[in-house]
């Protein structure tokens, strides 16, 4: 897996992941917890790994050349 997530994109994904995780613990709705739990999992996972399969399929790469 080549890294295709970098810099600002990675920070954005961490931010969305942690905000979504906060919503999971703040709400009582099971549906909302499931939806935001999945969003948090995807956001934090792609940020931590530095790889996003959707970016790969679309040909997007926000990683700097030295990160690849």
Q: How would you summarize this macromolecular structure in one to three sentences?
A:
The protein contains three helices and no strands. It has helices at 7-26, 30-49, 53-58. The chain starts with 6 loop residues before the first helix and ends in a 10-residue tail after the last helix.
Features:
single chain, 68 residues, mainly alpha, 3 helices, 68% helix, elongated
Overview of the molecule:
This protein is mainly α and 68 residues long. It has one domain (7-58). It has 3 helices and no strands. Helix 1 (7-26) packs antiparallel against helix 2 (30-49).
Kindly estimate the percentage of residues that lie in beta strands according to DSSP. under 5%
Structural domain tally: 1
Series of secondary-structure elements, N-terminal to C-terminal: HHH
Summed over residues and divided by their number, the pLDDT gives a mean of 94
């Amino acid at each position: 897996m080549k890294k295709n997530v970098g810099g600002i994109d990675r920070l954005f994904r961490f931010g969305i992941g942690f905000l979504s995780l906060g919503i999971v613990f703040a709400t009582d709705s099971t549906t909302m917890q499931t939806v935001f739990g999945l969003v948090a999992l995807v956001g934090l996972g792609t940020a931590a790994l530095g790889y996003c399969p959707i970016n790969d399929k679309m040909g997007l790469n926000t990683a700097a050349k030295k990160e690849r």
